[in-house]
UniProtKB/TrEMBL annotation, chains A, B, C, D, E, F:
Keywords: Hydrolase, Metal-binding, Zinc
Extent of the signal sequence: none
GO biological process entries: riboflavin biosynthetic process
Protein name: Creatininase family protein
PANTHER family per the UniProt record, alphabetical: 2-AMINO-5-FORMYLAMINO-6-RIBOSYLAMINOPYRIMIDIN-4(3H)-ONE 5'-MONOPHOSPHATE DEFORMYLASE, 3-DEHYDRO-SCYLLO-INOSOSE HYDROLASE
Alphabetical list of SUPFAM superfamilies matching this protein: Creatininase
Natural source organism: Cupriavidus pauculus
Family indicated by similarity: Belongs to the creatininase superfamily.
Cited InterPro entries: Creatininase-like_sf (IPR024087), Creatininase/forma_Hydrolase (IPR003785)
Pfam families reported for this sequence: Creatininase (PF02633)
Source taxonomy: Bacteria, Pseudomonadati, Pseudomonadota, Betaproteobacteria, Burkholderiales
GO MF terms held by the record: hydrolase activity, acting on carbon-nitrogen (but not peptide) bonds, in linear amides; metal ion binding
Superkingdom, natural source: Bacteria
Record bears the keyword Transmembrane helix: no
Entry cofactors: Zn(2+)
Length: 250, 250, 250, 250, 250, 250
């Protein structure tokens, strides 16, 4: 089920058979000369929706703006500060918990989000820890490229030039979903440089076209399709495993 | 243009011809027995994307979670606290301003958002006011039902039973966009009660199925289509007017 | 009773017969060439104290600084940021609730406060909504010019030139209360311009003497007295209605 | 001049001859069986307004709610959390600084405010310190009972039973200003106990009628008048000294 | 016991015999030409550890960064904003309270910390006061120079030139603990000036070498040893008294 | 140099030859039956001070309380919430930047800190990114076990039973520094279980004696000494490399 495309009685019914929900979370940020600004929120949304076609899972609306301060030197990037991002994530969790969701999996599409999402988890867990009570929910962060088998497939598809931003694998996923939006460019150099990530101006000076270590020209819709299919299957398994986890007994 | 489906060089090019952007903003919250949880963010997204088909406007990604604390008694609702919502809106504005956007119009789909959006505008304007400098951008909040002619059309379409939550007009808009998701229910009473809006438990006691003053059974995809068509045209006009506004001279 | 001019045992006794309190709330901001900076907090205070003379109501101390960032271009204006304003309002509510007040009515004197006051209400209601419990109190915002009959009287008194800031009706109320402070000026133009409200510098460029759409020269102490008398009576009715409201049964 | 009872052009004119303003600041909190809840904001307001009658000083509106969490066990007390109080004080300072005020003196009426006011000063000074720039304003906190000679007079008037909360000196000041509100009670014991100040329930257990170490029955309007007269004169001197302070040269 | 040098089972055992803990708290800030930057956190740490040698007390890790914004004009100073400092102190208290500590004494080494520490106490007490419940812990702030007898000894040792920052008494304490770090300088003038404390640039202009009213050349390790010995004994007494305090009965 | 044991003129002199500083950062939290509560802040402090003996580096005071909410079920743990931790880290950075430090390396001793430290870096970088200016400093996070060669040595020393909390390597480091504090226990099972990390009660139920996947009985002071010696050398190299990094040219 897609939560936003359901009614509240339908969610009430779902909660009788499952307490698990997956939240696609990403970012809206530059992805090099050819990547869509929405790449990082589109990828987990695409994968989660693909998974939903074949399994009784619940997909929350997509959390589409993340922590992308370093990309602000490129037009179109929209970023939350980490403190805002943490506050928003905790409000999403609080809301889902009110309804009785006990397993909340964030399917992430942006490396720059990881630290803040984990900080958000700790922020909301800390409320229970300081109050000496159970949280009532378990949280899990999974990057789509870390879903079972997906990293291996990407390395096989792109033995070199994968890099870490505007990667051919994420570009491929969006090409598969939106083939009409496939774009090309002359990448120079073909494989972008690597380096540390700091504030936006430093970033743009190091990575003039926005890519980090990647060659997006290697992406094809077909490769994207293979990644999505595998990721969708692995996501269902991940959710199954998470759903069947039991609370530890003291 | 749809910002998330564009590349950064495309946005850079857009900025040479326009400094205006529209942000669809809504909420994910219960909409009665038949309304989609996503109704309030879908409506402005649908209208903005329809407008974009016929005009050179830029549509930002949709801000899909708003201030819906009063709906938390119904499964599926996700809400930000006003303080979080304000922080997030100001980060969106800050990001867009970094790129040179000077006219930022929020096309809103949720009445419960209005106060917090206006508070957010004041929060970020206050930074400039305390610093004795120009803000560098102008902000505008427009509810889609307040776009020129739209309210009149809705009143004509639904002379009674329109109400203020889970209204037939918003339901109709989503029916037009997603006819396959049209749902039915026996509404009892046909027209829901009215009353004040307070915390979630009070809300659910007053409005047992979630509707306020409305009869969603009156909605049809056709009426929705008429609303969308008119709203899209009026949005383009609204953006034109906003874009051509000049800064006052002291 | 005036809360600040009472002792705690007197408030304790009052709470045995009523759980309702009215909080005058306004702003300290420029009101054009002749209006007092305190106009917006004085008006609700004047009206509430007038009402108190003839009814067993409890009037809290006046919340005298509000959200007036747009007026900061004019000397004497003092403003809270919306985030500060929200935090302060919630602390007032929390304090009153501790003592057992269950109906808290904010009698507002400043249009620019409305969004932030409503955001504050949602902020504190959200605590209960996230915790799945009753709030224990009901909140109401009433602008003094929206008290029963008051708007009609003002429109009758000032068929034109009323405007929306430094209005002849609010000036008249302060003239009635403080006739010795009545000031005059040559207004040019007699009726001030209208326009959008943004940051302070933009505001001063649009509204050079601070007025918006108004002609304060129309104010007289007599008209003010009529407004106060009516508003005071309507406030008592409003409080009676609010006090007798019953909690909805789920 | 009283700021709230002036117009913006009058403040503009004042700023040409002085950059100094005094802000009465207090609290609304229980003051024992006979003390007014407003005692702590009334005292500095009374003194500042008395001073203003004979000197060209500017008196800001009164900051009437302070840090009184420990008094919340007694009906009528309204308190800000320290964090809210700090935020509000810095917004007042920011606002006054925008207009060019360079010397801002807070005339305080509540011991419990001192720490938070000083923390607020450090909070706003820190902005300049981190930015390696001048603040542009100097801040001063003066408790009215520390004005030159006032403490000595109070000790002379009340050699015993003065105590530290609901003191006969502060009660006397309000009796002088509002003789019609003078109240009496059988104080038992005549002099209240002393002890540490912690949370509200602890406070009420230690100080059952709200007083700390004081015997308010010793207060008379005449003693209050003497205190006000002296305090008003000392305030003018204090403001003169503060106004003539020069910035140190590095 | 030194908490950081113990294991959790050892703390568990300690809690069976005592619910009291002392937290050394200070600052890392310039202390004139010869004083160590760590002086203000070293002094309470030295004293608490000395006390611990002869008594069954528990010494928490040292809170080593405080509120020192005014010293930021001198290299090496590290400061928290008051708001950050308050948040951190409340988290320490919350953590200690989780384990069952009921008496938490902060042994302070920096005058500039006092206001913020007290504000922090009020901030966390306010949570209980607003919730109408007991805090479950009592907090106490004691400056090491206010421990019984210590101030008298310092005045006797340094009848003049003690001053209030980079004082010979605090310098002496660090000299006693770290004689190898004793430094000398030509102080000119021998006794530093006094004056108000504001933002960092103002501070450095008033106090060019960082001292306030003091002559650190008077410090000797021997005098420091006498101060530490006395302070350590008085601290044990202070903790004994605090531990044996009983909750008041309502 | 040790910053806290230096004077401000000494730091001023240091800044003429280097703009680099290392901040040991850790946590005060349970480390199993035999590990010191201070283990995680002691390890980086020990290593940094060892490094300082042979190189001209500057070691800041130790940031000794981190993000340890999950350990709050064990007595003695003190934790900041992530939001507090982020605020404090940014204040440290702001302070060091005021003095001209341009390379700030945090030498971390606690895995649970990583997310929040990175979030803090993004939080402060975002200020520059939103303001379209250079940050003026570069930040680096290095866990001591990730210093060149250290992980390999630990794996060699402890081929099994290393685990991830209360590891024999960190215990060994503290044993080397404080051999008199070496403790023993019967670990049952010898190697602790693994599992996810959530709120404190869940944690204690999963990991009854506090260890995760480790066998601390394998630690010896000698192994600790080897780790410290290597880590200290690698830290100096790391600082050298960081110091010589040049800003990228746009």
């Amino acid at each position: 089920m897609l939560l936003s495309f359901s009614t509240w009685p339908e969610i009430e019914a779902y909660l009788k058979r499952s307490r698990t929900v997956v939240v696609p979370i990403g970012s809206n940020e530059q992805h090099g000369p050819t990547g869509l600004l929405g790449t990082d929120w589109l990828c987990p949304e695409i994968i989660a929706r693909e998974a939903e076609k074949n399994a009784d899972i619940l997909v929350a609306p997509t959390f589409n703006i993340g922590m992308a301060q370093h990309h602000l030197g490129f037009p179109g990037t929209i970023s939350l500060r980490p403190s805002t991002f943490v506050a928003a994530i905790t409000d999403w969790i609080r809301s889902l918990s009110v309804h009785g969701f006990e397993k909340i999996l964030f399917l992430n599409g942006h490396g720059g989000n990881i630290a803040s999402i984990e900080a958000a988890f700790s922020e909301i867990y800390a409320e229970s820890s300081f109050a000496r009570r159970d949280a009532g929910f378990a949280l899990k962060l999974v990057n789509w490229w870390d879903l079972e088998g997906v990293g291996d497939l990407a390395r096989e598809q792109f033995p070199e030039g994968h890099g870490s931003h505007a990667t051919p694998s994420e570009i491929a996923v969006t090409q598969w979903a939106f083939p009409e939006l496939k774009k090309t460019a002359d990448f120079s150099p073909p494989i972008a440089p690597n380096g540390p990530i700091r504030e936006a101006r430093d970033f743009r000076a190091r990575f003039p076209d926005g890519r980090i270590g990647s060659n997006p020209a290697l992406a094809t819709p077909e490769k994207g399709g293979a990644l999505v299919e595998l990721a969708a299957r692995s996501l269902v398994k991940e959710l199954d495993g998470f759903s069947s986890e039991r609370k530890p007994q003291a």
